[in-house]
Hints:
By secondary structure, the protein is of the alpha+beta class.
Amino acid sequence: MASGRTGKREKWTEEDRKELSKVYSMHPLQFTNSLIDRHGREGCYYQAQRMGLSHKLSGKYLYLKEWPETTKAYLAGIIDGEGTITICNQKWKRKYSSGVSTRPMVAISNTDYGLLKYLNNLNVGGVSYDRRQHEGWKQSFQWSVSSHLGCLSILRTILPYLVIKKKRAEEVIKYIEEKHPNEVYDCA
């Protein structure tokens, strides 16, 4: 038997598929150890997709539940103090039409590149930098997540640790669940 991410995987049997279907219906993305040992976590995820159990799940948001509690609490503290949880209006214009669309966003702006590098190493979101407005100002960096699934995953993961922005996070989660019901999964 292969375990982890290396080695040859076993073929999926009908019993394996039944076990995956049963487990997935109760706890999406939480596979049993026996399935992980035989097929690997990625293999279980892939098979769940092939069986139609998951639809638009993104691989990088699968492992948020596995973050240490200290990472979840630290990220919540940074977002409470330095971050933003919002729903943005984004104007768009095409050749023959224009309009406004909304999207959720979780962001942290800071002048300390070390902090933003740490956030970037979480493999969720992305880091960008802002141009300096004045010559004497420090360079500012921003880490942000703006996809519906990404925001939903992050907010569900850190919600128990938020204090100041907890109500706002609940509002954004509710907005995503109502606006995009087909993208709502128990991803975190």
